[in-house]
Amino acid sequence: EDQVTQSPEALRLQEGESSSLNCSYTVSGLRGLFWYRQDPGKGPEFLFTLYSAGEEKEKERLKATLTKKESFLHITAPKPEDSATYLCAVQHQGGSEKLVFGKGTKLTVNP
Amino acid sequence: GAGVSQTPSNKVTEKGKYVELRCDPISGHTALYWYRQSLGQGPEFLIYFQGTGAADDSGLPNDRFFAVRPEGSVSTLKIQRTERGDSAVYLCASSRLAGVGYEQYFGPGTRLTVT
Description:
heterodimer; A: 111 residues; mainly beta; Immunoglobulin-like; six-stranded mixed β-sheet; five-stranded antiparallel β-sheet; globular; B: 115 residues; seven-stranded mixed β-sheet; four-stranded antiparallel β-sheet; 11 strands
């Protein structure tokens, strides 16, 4: 059974204090690993898809990386508007399109 | 362009009642997904449509839950004999096609409260 574990559950940073969020996964053949951002009361907003170990993708202050067992979401010099819950999800090979999500990391960036 | 829309945004119902939740996908998207999210949890897959047919309904918790997409666009999630444990945010997502490289885009969700 596919499993996704995110850590830490919650993270508080000062504005400008860089850090990383972790997503560990167990999947029978990874087809894709996805990062989403979710603001309170809203649906998840797509950020990145990673397909193979060694792949990296960047968007503004965010960079996602992937190994065979985990993914990291690096946040460089965060701003208060980066405060949100960050969700990681995996999709396995074999035909199903469903995403299996972790519980998320709630990030708070203080000014 | 317009994103995924869901109606109603909030629904309060009594235990035992029937409810319908509606999802309008992004125009032109052929794949549609339903997820359920409880407080403090990530979304949990329910069902996925490719066109009009349910391609994977393995996440539906029991036979009180049913979903349709009769014309390959709008979808309705139907819950019979609601229970308090059904209270959650029901999220709908769509993608242009199904398969590698097609990301799922989510709507704002319907918050269902069963009293």
